Amino acid sequence: MENQEEINLKSFFYKLSSVNVGFNVYKSNNPHRICIEHLICSNCKSFWETGNKECYFCGTPNYHLFTCLECHKQSSITSSGKKCPYCGANGTLRQLCLNKNCPTNNENNEYLYNKVRNKSKSKSGAIFQGDGGFYIRQNSCKKCGSRFNEYSFAEINVVLNKNEATENYNNVFNVYIEREDSECPAKFYYTDNKQFDSIQNLLKYILD
């Protein structure tokens, strides 16, 4: 039968695995610990958001906006339907690169210009949608511009006593999970004698 420490560790592991904050979770060789890692900038140590998209041709990030091929105005992809909210044109919304100096916005480059503005029903056009292959994942740090990244790594040991959530040693963090009762979700997390109100803030501290 599992003891309370094992139950807490397993529960925390599943919680980590289900929260999408851009880090990887593994079981440790030590049965009482969990391993986590996250990609960071080698220069400024800020989180490297691997889910972000960049224009293949100029590196401009995806701002999640549609550009209308008729009136050329931008609208959010979350609030726009098939019609442009400004001119009412149907089927003219494309996720184009917003950098005016991007080669894809140069009318003199006729092939590329028309390719990303494909007006057919095919989804092969546009920069950040479809299967045109015009975007790549984040290639440089959004904070300092560095092109180098590395993994930040730590081990988490879930403890039953708040007093054990003290200063970490050799990149091993003791984490105490405070609950209102044994059945409810976590209320606060503690490590290094610090309190965190969310699992995201806890992990950013640990992996910083």
UniProtKB/TrEMBL annotation:
InterPro entries: SH2. PROSITE patterns: SH2. Residues 111-208 form the SH2 domain. It comes from the Bacteria. This is SH2 domain-containing protein. It comes from Apilactobacillus micheneri. The lineage of its organism: Bacteria, Bacillati, Bacillota, Bacilli, Lactobacillales.
